[in-house]
Amino acid sequence: MRTPHTARRRRTLAGVLLAACLALAGCGGAGDPGGSSKAASDGRAEAAGARGGTGGDGTAGGGRAVRGTPRLAPDAIIRTASLTVEVHDVSRALEAARTAAEDAGGYVGNETTSRDEDGHEQTRAVLRVPTERYDEVLAGLQGAGRVVERTAKAVDVTDQVVDVDSRVASQRASVARIRALMEKAAKLSDVVALEGELSSRQADLEALLARQASLKDRTGLATITLSLSEPPVRRAHGSPGFSDALSGGWHAFAGGLRWVALALGAALPFVALAALLVVLWLRVVRPRLPRSAGPAKATAAPGPLPSARPAPESAEPAGRVAAD
């Protein structure tokens, strides 16, 4: 059973608790004066966003969807092809290829024409055509002659295109924020720091824009590398005859004469120089050399020694006379 004293105590305790709660609420509001305004601004922003997300009639439950289905980015594909075709008239086939590319809305990029050792004309051209007309132009080029080689390649760069587009948008917003801060900056040091940051971000933005333009060019225009050449002359294979042997001998003889002429032509400057040196020696140097004295006169050779005269015949020996 409750007594009047107990009831009074409970009412007093309840009053004290209520007063304490009010005091705490007042202290919290005084300690954070900006909290209420921030919360109010956030609430107003959320309310405005909610109103913007509603249908055109201002009601959230209208017939229109609050947010539409996200639109998928179209496929970005880089298409390239290499085609080698043998034709009988290279100039006419090249002109037809140029006309086909221009009619499709493209153009001819690089073009190179040359001739091989046999005099056959060869041409290499790079065609840029819109992607939607790529298959049509490629089929027309294949029908110009006999296809020797054909390669085609398709590279999907959709992820790269989406990434670059997103980064370009973010970088542009970043540059805009730096410009806004520069307009509000009051100190010279702040202005200098912001200018350096703006230059860095502007350079990054220009690099992204260049990459974006490159991707747009390669995905918008397909590249076809066309090589045109004349068919080689096919020679009949068989046993060589007299005319073949004569022709081979004549070519060998002409080749030998050619090499001899080349050798003489190479030696002619040296021969001319040697002849000039000999002429100078005989006409200029040799006459100026001192002449040496002639050989001494030879002494008279001794004549033969005089021989002894024979003794005159004398009278016969005396002994012989006496004997007579």
Automatic annotation (TrEMBL):
Signal peptide residues on this chain, from the entry's feature table: 1-25
Top-level lineage group: Bacteria
Start and end residues of each DUF4349 domain: 76-281
InterPro entries xref list: DUF4349
Keywords in alphabetical order: Membrane, Signal, Transmembrane, Transmembrane helix
Feature: compositional bias, Low complexity: 35-49, 292-302
Biased segments, Gly residues type: 50-65
PROSITE patterns reported in the protein's UniProt record: PROKAR_LIPOPROTEIN
Location of region: Disordered: 32-69, 101-121, 292-324
Spans traversing the lipid bilayer: 259-282
Protein's UniProt name: DUF4349 domain-containing protein
Organism listed in the record: Streptomyces argyrophylli
